[in-house]
Structure formats: structure tokens, C-alpha cells
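>> Question from a student workshop board

For tomorrow's exercise we were told to take the sequence and the ligand below, predict the bound structure, and bring the output to class. My setup keeps failing. Could a helper post the expected result so I can at least see what it should look like? The ligand is S-adenosylmethionine.
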Amino acid sequence: MKETATVEDIELDLFLEALHRRYHYDFRAYSRGSLFRRAELACERLHCDSLSALQDKVLHHPEILPDVIDCMTVQVSEMFRDPAYFAAMRQHVIPHLRTFPSLKVWVAGCSEGEEVYSLAILFREEGLFDRTMFYATEINRRALVRAEAGIYPIERMADFTANHQKTGARNSLADHYTAAYGGAVIDRSLRSRIVFAEHSLATDQVFSEMHLISCRNVLIYFDQNLQDRSFCLFQDALVRGGFLGLGAHETLRFSAHAGAFTPFRETERIWRRSAGQRKEGTDAA
Ligand SMILES: C[S@@+](CC[C@H](N)C(=O)[O-])C[C@H]1O[C@@H](n2cnc3c(N)ncnc32)[C@H](O)[C@@H]1O
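>> Workshop helper replied:
Here is what the output should look like for this input. Compare the format with yours to find the bug.
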């Protein structure tokens, strides 16, 4: 006998279809378990008894869309999160990047900016900041606005400082922000070399050639097909020998694109774009 879909499955599919067709937010290839949890949270916060009710509400009241997107995405982040990753960047990746006269770094899924500011600070400490452009992309517009503002609650700075120290920093994190407006305001000159933009790994294309891509704690929310789509973008965007950093629970190992990369620092989840597999005329190295 043919299995019938549950009401919850049908409601989730229709809700995701509505978000996509009306607002171009495409969550259809996110991992199912996480989607159910996020959608349940959205129903709770927006006082809807079911996903059908939430679908009706978001279609007829576009002003609630940012609240829905807040629920559907996870904004947990910190500066120098997983310090060992940044320590490996400092010790092992930076020496290779030094050989390029100019650099482009893409932080995909930048949340409220913690990761891109961490990299910008690290690059400044290592003397590479002035020759680097950073691209920080994100689907959640509210998060992007906060990222661009670069102001964090002062209470968070103690943890950020402890993380920073563990990356082998010789100076203080306080050199890169000032306390004002009840928060820590990231040094304006750091922001001057960062382009913040809306970009979805689910629907958008490559926009420039990169030497380092850091996409951490984003792909865990995607199914294998969408992870593969993302890896394909990264493969196309990276110069030969360029670096790809993932989150602690993410891997390229099961991807159809694994062959285009070689493990560089397995423990810290850093790969390198293999030589010789890039399309003609797209190599900047
Ligand atoms: C848990 S945060 C990770 C932030 C940061 N990279 C880190 O590791 O601390 C995941 C981010 O990915 C963003 N995101 C989710 N789907 C995305 C997509 N399709 N394209 C780009 N960013 C996405 C979310 O909005 C969220 O800001």
C-alpha cells in the first residue's frame, strides 16, 4: 500500500513553497528535522496554531516576514568561535596567503558579523588587512543590518577576548573596538574593507573569485543536495590553492565535489582547492 504523507509534512511543504514563490526565500532543501523545529518556533512566536495558519498570515501580512525569517534561521555566533580554527588560520593558512599580492575573503552565512570581524582582525594582526577585501553574505536582512553596524553587547566581549587570546594573538582584542552606546563598537576602519550583501547559498551564484572562503555552521542546516550546491559554488569561486574553512560538524567528505579539494587541516576543517581542476581562464593565481 502506498504510504500517505502526514498532515505536518504537507503543511511544511506548502509553507516552504509559499515562502519561496512569494518572497524567494528557499528553505526547501534544508534538513527536515531542523525545519520542523524552526517552523514550530515560528508558529509559537507568531501565535499560530498550525503551519497552515502561519502560511496564511505570512502571505497576507508581509510585514511579519522578517520575524518568520528570524525563526527559520539560527543566529548563534561568536567572535573567534572555535579558537583552534582561527589559530590554524594564523599559523598555517596565512603564510600561504602572504604570497598573493591582493586577497579576497568570503564569509558565507555571516550572521551578525562576528566571524568576518574576527577574520578582519586576524588579517590586520598578521599584516594582510590592507591588501584584502572581505565579502560577508547572509540571507537574514536584520542580521546583515546588525553585522554592518558592528556593535555588540559589552557583556559578550569577555568571551570574545578569551577566544581571541586562544588563537595565539599577541595584542588585545580591545585594540579593535571602543566602548560606546552601551556596547562595543568595532573599529570603523575594519568595516571599511568589508562588503556586506544579501546572498543565498540556495539560490544565488558565485560573484567573485576568492582566496579564502569561510562558511561555518551554515551547511549543517542543509540536506546533502544543497550542501553539494554550496560546495559547487565554493569550487567555482576559489582560485587554485585557495582555502575553504567549514564548521566543527561539517565535512566535504561525502560530497560529490570532494575531489576538487584536498584536506589541509582536517582537525580544524580546512580544505584547499586542488590544482588543475579549474575552468580555463578563471584562475587568478
Ligand atoms: C549559525 S549561523 C553561523 C554564523 C557564523 N558563520 C558562525 O559560524 O558563527 C548560520 C547563518 O547562516 C545563515 N544562512 C542560512 N541559510 C543560508 C543561505 N541559504 N545562504 C546564506 N546564509 C544562510 C543564517 O541566517 C545564519 O546567519
